[in-house]
Amino acid sequence: MKNLLLLFCLLLSPYFSHAQKLTQTLRGTVVDKVTQMPLPGATVLILNEEPLIGTTTSLDGEFRLSQVPIGSKTLKVSYIGYKDAFLPNMVVNSGKELVLVINLEEDITAIEEVVVTAEVEKSRALNEMAPVSARTFSVEETRKYAAAINDPARMVTAFAGVVSTGDGANGISIRGNAPRGLLWRMEGVDIPNPNHFANLGSAGGGISILSAQLLSNSDFMTGAFPAEYGNALSGVFDLKLRKGNNETHEYTFQAGFLGIDGAVEGPFRKGYGGSYLINYRYSTLSMLSQLGLIDLGDFNTTFQDLSYHLTFPTKKAGQISVFGFSGLSSEIGEADRDTTLWEFDYQRYDSRFYANTHLSGLKHSIVLNSKNYLQSALVFSQLQNGYIADSLSTTFQPYRQFNERFIDQSVLLSSVLNTKISPRLHGRSGIYLKRIGYDFLQRYPSPETNEMQTYIQSEGTMYTVQLFSQWNYAFSETWQANVGMHYIRLTLNGTQSIEPRASIKHAINTKQSISLGYGLHGQTQNAGIYFTEQTESDGSKTLINKSLGMSKAHHWVLSYDHSLSPYLRLKTEAYYQYLYSLPVSPDVSNPLASINFEEGLITEKLVNKGRGRNYGLELTLEQFTYNNTYFLLSGSLFNSEYQALDKVWRNTRYNSQYAFSFTGGKEFFSTKKEKNITYGINMKVLYTGGFRYTPIDIEASREQQQIEYITEQTFSLQNKDYFRTDLRLSMKINKKRTTSTLALDIQNLTNRKNIQGTYFDLESEEMVESYQLPLIPILSYRIEF
């Protein structure tokens, strides 16, 4: 650790030189938030600059500000008949132009608009129809939050009600729900799990496939989300992609302990307006193991990904964009060929795990007229997931113990119409049609005979249909309501769900508001569950879970928001979720329930007769960046329980009951005037209750030579509290035409041994504790030019 800090300091030394005043171009487009019509003549000003820097938009709604000094800027955008928009903390660097798309909201009255401070605006979701349990997050946050490593799923663990399910992956439990209840969206359409090392049915993985280079400001929701979002129970990541620079070719390169990362962007040709943005990344986590920073055993762990966003504007037919990503990840392990080193059973296995994800999308956006904006998309995606494991005899003869292969190929067609009837009333309606092609195989030894048995072997197609319509009406400047309906149908078995959604918001005054939201939400089961096979006495096979219905949940949220100052905000939310139609075991003595599945795949028969309830109170105190300092303090007290067929209320696996986090940071500058060199220190502290687990009957496990649980005590035990401190040290150097950043992220700064779980090892016949990741320093260097 001392050597790494010394290396960090040595790398800083070449940059201590005389500073010079550097500038960059800031440009963009100002449009109507609903219809996306350009707004000519809008005023764009950079606040707190002397002399004043400002301009007005052209007939196409475009603006350009040249010779803008580098640093953090606040923009004010004004247009007659619209509310002023404030964009705080816009970071201007010398290495890249800052290109923005600014959405203005029409004022519903003829009197002077209510001006909301820039910092309060930042707390709102980009989606104006989500007044509760929603927050926007920026790319800058995913970069500067300690140990977030440009991963949105790791970054949001700083938010109230969000708990990580493990250090080694980015799965999250939201308000006590299972991780698979999360919905991922990108550019307005549902996408497959965009993470490396993802298992079938999971919503997380080892690390995000999507590079922060492609992302723009996006939304994250934790409950009672609007009608446009379906097939999810716990939360939504609504990701937006930025466009490449359509005037200048720009490049970004990053290298570090996690691998290399490169991005290119620019115009297709001069004067056209179209652009490309492409990012490639290659990493070998084995490098961390070779450096002694993390113990991966004998596993060779690698991943690589490619992501892109291409835009093609036309004169009259709107804009066409092509976007997508591909991620390849694998983990190959070989047992040591010296049997004297086999202390535990798992050490005698050869294994190979792979997870590959691909998505390609074609989107068309067009402004039909001054009232309507249409966006349509066609998306192809494929998930490939597999695991093969062989147990070696003492003579190294392999015996197949597990063979799993899952392929999911999908085609999604969507069309969404945004309509503005008047400044008071606007709506959004759409349709999503999805074809799912599947090819599943799962084989492992039967617990009774110890012979290989096929539990899933199926291929075919199924479809989902989703329809929605939602409308937002402003009764006045202080009252507004949102109502909508979502419909989803699974053609495989004809199950369907009609889901009303509604919310109302009241601004008590310019500093305080209160909101109430409700939603009924349904989610289909993981595809692998539907195709679990059971062999009958006559040798025929039956799909025992094909008729399973959807899991459902009622969400109620009461929210109070108070702006204590222009830079300090307090928010509290109380919520209650009632879950029903949860898949559980048909055996009254078996408390198995899908609400506890992290990855959503089992091979037992299930019925939709389970129930659950999550309720809690959340508090967030946040200072948006002011005087180069920010912090986010969040706390959550909650309870998460479920019932199986025995009608006994039990803890869910994710009922940690409390979660607290502190995230903060400060920037320092080399000089007060030029600010060419910026030093950053960021810290994140997490403290949560431990997850629940079921005690193991040790004597029965020894006798049966397989793990036997005490089922009547399911999830009655709790792991020790989880505590972790992360630290990020960074230095950003702006030179003429380049911006470089050197950073050291240290995960688990105190090297605390947080428990991952407790299991029974069949080889030693003893209980063994496994731990989460130790202290891990990650050094990286990024240059933009």
From TrEMBL:
Localization in the cell: Cell outer membrane
Highest rank taxon of the organism: Bacteria
Xref: SUPFAM superfamilies: Carboxypeptidase regulatory domain-like, Porins
Signal peptide as annotated in the record: 1-19
Keywords: Cell outer membrane, Membrane, Receptor, Signal
Protein name, entry field: TonB-dependent receptor
Organism in which the protein naturally occurs: Shiella aurantiaca
